[in-house]
Amino acid sequence: MTIKKLEKKIGTLSKTSKxxxxxxxxxxxxxxxxxxxxKIKGTTCFGCYARTGNYRFPAVRLAHKFRLEAINExxxxxxxxxLITIKYSKIKKSKKYFxxxxxxxxxxxxxxxxxxxxxxxxxxxxxxxxxxxxGVLKYVEQKDIPDNLIIRASAIKVNGNPPQFWQWTSTVHxxxxxxxxxxxxxxxxxxxCLDCRNxxxxxxxxxxxxxx
Length: 212
Prior knowledge:
The protein is an alpha/beta fold and about 210 residues long. Helix content is about 25%, strand content about 15%. Helix 4 crosses helix 5. The longest helix has 13 residues, at about 60-70. It is globular and about 50 Å long.
């Protein structure tokens, strides 16, 4: 199946300037936990970038809605596997990195299980998924996570501690505050990853992003 036909069935992939390759996103307005936190000052979702600017345009929100609905379709796993495989077919192995939910979050356990299968179907690609949906993660055992996928449980509060229940995490710190674990260098790189791939490394337990 061609890229156009696949995109017509399940939607397009994102390719942001920050990320090293492709990503998948849904609307931050459809986040379950994030939608609540976005209204609470001091949380990592307050002032969320994915709820402002271009993300509010009708065309973008429509595309997000289409992707979210498509993930419930029985053909989604096969179609997403094909789309990712084709998109990465001409990318060097050393640059095969993918991010789930550059906006939005895990909609359900069933959706996460489908993502697991897509990761298993694309073993040559490194996948990363950040989430605040702790309620979904409590049903997940580490042994069930594909080896080429890292899930990072994101902290709730700015300058707060990382979640204790999960092995891989991320936090947000303000400028001048001591960060926990590995500091994301993007704040000093025009907001880009460049050659950094720390978010995808299981050897790094916590990544801390400076608030901007």
